[in-house]
Amino acid sequence: MNNLKASIIKIAKAALNTFKAFPAANACALGFTLITMIRIQLDWPEQEAYNFLFNCLHLGFSVGVFFSLAAIAYTKSRWNDPKKFWTANLLGVLSALMAFLGLYYLGADKTQTAAQFLYVSDIAASRVAVTILVSLIGLIVFAAIPKARSDFARAFFMVEKAFFIALIYGGVMMAGASSVAGAVEVLLYSSMSEKVYMYIGAIVLFLAYTVFVGYFPDFKSQEADERWETTQKQPKFIEVLFLNIMVPLMAALTVVLLAWAVKTMLTGDWPSFIQLSSIAIGYSVSGIWLHIMITHHETSLAKWYKRLYPVAALIVLAFEAWALLVQLSKYGLKTTEYYFVLVWVVTVLAVILLFAIKDRAHMLIAAMVCVSAIISVLPVVGYQILPIQMQIHRLEGLLETNGLLQNGTLVPAKTELPVQLRYAITDSVLFLAYERNTELPMWFDKKLGEIKEFKDKLGFDQLREATGTDVYLANNTMATYLQLPSEPISIKGYDWMVNIQQMERIDNQTSVSIKGGNGTYQIAWTANEPSVPELRIKRDGKTLLTQSLQAYLDKLMDKYPPSMEGPKTATISDMTFTIETPEVSVLLVFNNVNVDLDISRDKLNYWVNLNAVYFKEK
After folding, report:
1. For residues 73 and 22, what is the distance between their CA atoms, to the nearest angstrom?
2. Which phi and psi (to 5°) does residue 293 adopt?
3. DSSP assignment, residue 572?
4. Based on C-alpha coordinates, what's the Rg of the chain?
5. Mean pLDDT, the chain, as a whole number?
6. 157 CB contacts (<8 Å, ≥6 apart)?
7. Which of 349, 230, 238 is nearest to 293 (CA)?
8. Are 85 and 75 in contact (CB under 8 A)?
9. How far apart are CA 120 and CA 51, in angstroms?
10. How far is the CA of 477 from the CAs of 176, 474, 561, in angstroms?
11. Average pLDDT for residues 327-331, to the nearest whole number?
């Protein structure tokens, strides 16, 4: 009991000390926790009206936490002046207030203004994320001052170490407190609300945060703190992890990537751009991080890695640059390519600097990361504007050159267009049509992304290249993919309509019972995808019909042979199937029908989405 009491007192003192060292940051963290508890207390229908306000408060307090940490670290590490210290705290509080007001009055999602409730826009949330990132990097940079006691690599590791220690403490506290609450619920109070666990989570998150900031030594510039050596020192197991495990793994990965680059260039079998870029960027960023982490290691293995990694990274990034140029020539600049360009530029400059000036490059790399992050959310050159404007310019060029855009009006194609041109137009239209908060030309209707509207305005079906991610365009696959048109369906003469979504589903069979004049009917729809579905109807236990859809699907495939094209809008007659027996009449209406032909195995796979069943007894 005494040990438990001492432990509780120690945690409480550590939390109080963090309030002294980072008052504004901790006040914002406490505000974040209180808002979380209010949201826990309010049930969702009651909370929904305040959801926008709570989101703005949460994001505002988040900005306040990290901006305050950076501002206080900056002030203490330079002046150790009480007045400047409280000025930094005041700026931290003001940052939270300004972020909240900016989000509340300017950050609403304009596409949701017609809805009952507002939402924080994506760009506003992105700007908050960038502010937090820059503040966190600032904390590391300011913690690295003065040079006599620290540098960027040591400060970076210290922050990482503090985070993982807080994560472990938080995990243990959460597991222990949840276990106690669970025991109370099982043994003493069975009707205890599940919100108790949510409250515990909110409190534990705050305590874990105090552990995180409480781990930092005193940033005062005029005073020595023996904890600097302890907090920045890499434990032996971390040294072993970095040098004996991660460095060899990165070396092996480098060999694999270089071999893969050579193989790709020789065979011309390029993977998707997203896959290729994620591999290259993941390798480069993780390699730079490891390079920083082993800055002060002087073993032969560490020296070898620090000398050779930048060269290998440049080769991989040069290979990726070629893939980027191919991607831009085919699809133009979009959001994925935009972010890749930013990251590519920063990583190339970073590895060059690491090779040329070694650890002196760390501060410059941090500055480049901050600058690129800020650029990505600026009004004119940010991710929400520049790729869209580039795509609009590209699409206008494609349409005007081929006579599809004349005097600001779309004109349907009169002749068959080349496949690559249809690919390019479809890709650009779909990108623009599904971008929110976007100002588009007068001739571009947001509905242009819909299959029927696209064909009506441009004169051809949407056509997308196989990427390996679309069901109907997977590698080695051709498909018949049909969708129900937005037209009325005659249901004259039918007694009941059964919504398939509301029918009882057991395993792969969906069924419903209907009490009619001649008995009780059970309608069962069996869809063992990717096999052919089947409809079965019984009356008072006697089977009236068992109907496979094989003949119906074969007829569709004769009319719409499998191809590499995208979805098509079929006719009403194509998307309905009528069954007549002496006892009943049934009309099946399908939302979509997808039949895949796996060329490599010569196998058909079926996915049939049933919309409704119309039923009449005779």
Report:
1. 9
2. -65, -30
3. T
4. 31
5. 85
6. 232, 234, 293
7. 238
8. yes
9. 10
10. 52, 5, 13
11. 85
> Which span out of 175-179, 220-224, 541-545 was modeled with the highest average pLDDT?
175-179
Show the 3-state SS of 73-108.
HHHHHHCCCHHHHHHHHHHHHHHHHHHHHHHHHHCE
- How long, in residues, is the chain? 618
Do the beta carbons of residue 425 and residue 461 sit within 8 Å?
Answer: no
User: In this predicted model, what pLDDT tens digit does every residue of 227-282 receive, in sequence order?
Assistant: 788 889 999 999 999 999 999 999 899 888 888 888 877 877 777 777 777 888 88
Written as six digits, the tokens of 376 are 């990505």
Show the CA angle centred on residue 574, arms to residues 568 and 577, nearest 5°. 140
Which residues are paired to 37 by β-bridges? none
Residue 226 reports pLDDT greater than 80: no
pLDDT for 115? 47
Q: Which of 506, 504, 536 is nearest to 522 (CA)?
A: 536
Rounded Cα–Cα distance for residues 551 and 186 (Å): 57
* Helical segments of 188-334, H only: 195-214, 227-232, 236-240, 247-267, 273-293, 300-331
**Phi-psi sector, 80: left (phi>0), alpha (psi -120 to 50), beta:** left
- 432 and 443 in contact (C-beta within 8 Å)? no
Enter the pTM of the model. Answer: 0.75
Name, in order, each residue with C-beta under 8 angstroms of 109's C-beta and a sequence gap of 6 or more: 118, 119, 120, 121, 122, 436, 437
Q: Which long-range contacts (CB under 8 A, 24 or more apart) does 427-430 make?
A: 427/331, 427/464, 427/465, 428/331, 428/332, 428/391, 428/394, 428/395, 428/398, 429/395, 429/454, 429/458, 429/462, 430/462, 430/464
Three state DSSP letters for 537-559:
EEECCEEEEEEECHHHHHHHHHH
User: Which residue has 């800055």 as its token pair?
Assistant: 295
3-state helix, strand, coil in the chain (%, to 5): 60, 15, 25
Looking at per-residue pLDDT, the higher value among 601 and 251 belongs to 251
Displacement of CA 78 from its chain's centroid (Å): 39
- Going by C-alpha positions, the residue among 482, 425, 418 that lies closest to residue 449 is 425
Maximum distance among all Cα pairs of the chain, rounded to whole angstroms? 98
CA dist., res. 372 & res. 376, Å (int): 6
Query: Which residue reads 């509780």 in tokens?
Result: 8
Separation of alpha carbons 453 and 456, rounded Å: 5
Looking at residue 268, its amino acid is G
147-173 per-position pLDDT tens digit = 778 899 999 999 999 999 999 999 999
Residue pair 611/525 in contact (Cβ under 8 Å)? The answer is no
- Report the pLDDT averaged over residues 326-336: 87
Distance of CA 417 to the CA centre of its chain: 35
For 494-511, the pLDDT digits (tens) are: 888 887 665 555 555 677
Mapped onto helix, strand or coil, the DSSP state of residue 483 is strand
Confidence of residue 310 (pLDDT cuts 50, 70, 90): very high
Q: Are 67 and 131 in contact (CB under 8 A)?
A: yes
> Residue 415: helix, strand or coil by DSSP?
coil
pLDDT range class, residue 223, cuts 50, 70, 90: low
Tokens of 92: 């931290």
- Residue type at 81 in one-letter notation: D
**The dihedral of CA 595, 600, 602, 605: what is its sign?**
negative
